[in-house]
Amino acid sequence: MVTNLPAEAKAQWRRVMEARTPEEKLRELQKFYSLIPKHKGTKNLVRSVRSQMARLREEIEESKKRRRGGYLSPWEFEKTGDVTLGIISTDYSVLTSFMDSTFGRPDRYMHWRMLPTMYNKVVNDVEIQYIVAPPIGINPSVDRKVINLAKKVNYTLLIAGDGDDVSRMVGLLEEEGIHITPHPIDVKISRTPSGGIRVYGVDSEWIEEIRSILRDYGIYNAVVKVDGNVDPELFQDIVLGVKTFILGGAYLWKGESLVEPQTGREWHVSKMGDMVVEKLGLIRVYPVRNIREKTSKPIILRSGATVADLARHIHSRVAESLRYALIIRDGEVVRVSPTHELRDGDVVYLKTH
Do 92 and 63 belong to one domain? Predict the structure, then answer.
């Protein structure tokens, strides 16, 4: 945990949070950095701020190139498909083997040029957008770009040939304050003109301490939403950028399968759609016009979604006129209400007025 930051530094961090442009944020971060006492208790914060400033400088330079015209960064991408999956490794051979098994398109591979390979593929009725990063641990500038990519995808796969390489890769990311987690951990702070500090998503015993932390940084009115098991120490680390959590997992690459080191569970590349559905808490639902038919492409919803959620996803008018639904599940047709919770693989006929 960051300790003993002077009041002036805490006040400056509020200005960093309020910055609206990369240029403004860089200026405010530079001022904040100059105010951080340099000692053992702040070493992680110092490292984090240096990394943030380096990423901002690169972002500003990329923006200048775009404004001059005719430039599109190979690191920028528009999310397409149902799920965006980031692939990170330290090993060229592991990346090549993974892409050979998944894509079979060696002419498309860019990792040897230290650029990402982007490719969409439908697997198990899920359209996956693969973002395969070049190897990390070789070039600090490339590593920063890979980290930025990992922050933008839905799920990050760390793949390695052996357990030692997994540990090395996890260590490289954690040195940059990036932690891979199977469950969401995040903090969102929305400033408000009044109303005090309202905190949601944490144990009641931590609320007053979190409010005290924010007041120390000059924040007196805000809505704070916390996702995951976050105590005050971790809360401050997340707010200051010392720790960033990315949804994902570390896996061993064995032939054509990803193996979870702790459990030994295997996911063949032909089952990647099933894997991301499970890891991200999603379901595939097949709406039909006729109960005897099945659509070729499902609608992807969050686990726990109801019939009414499906109707809203299709169109607001469908939701407004929804009466009930017929579901094919386990070979049986069942009539259910709009509040009925859907399951992965359900075939659904929506009955409207």
Answer: no
Q: Are residues 255 and 137 in the same domain?
A: yes
Domain-located, residue 195: no
pLDDT at position 163 = 87
The two structure tokens encoding residue 328: 């094919």
Would you say residue 211 lies in a domain? no
pTM: 0.88
Amino acid type, 129: Q
* 48 lies in the same domain as 88: no
The domain in which residue 47 lies consists of 1-72
pLDDT digits (tens, 9 = 90+) for 209-246: 999 999 988 899 999 999 999 999 999 999 998 899 99
Shared-domain flag, residues 322 and 346:
yes
Look at residue 107 in the predicted model and tell me its pLDDT.
62
Q: Are residues 103 and 166 in the same domain?
A: yes
The predicted structure's pLDDT at residue 106: 65
- pLDDT score of 134 more than 70: yes
* Residue at 173 is within a domain: yes
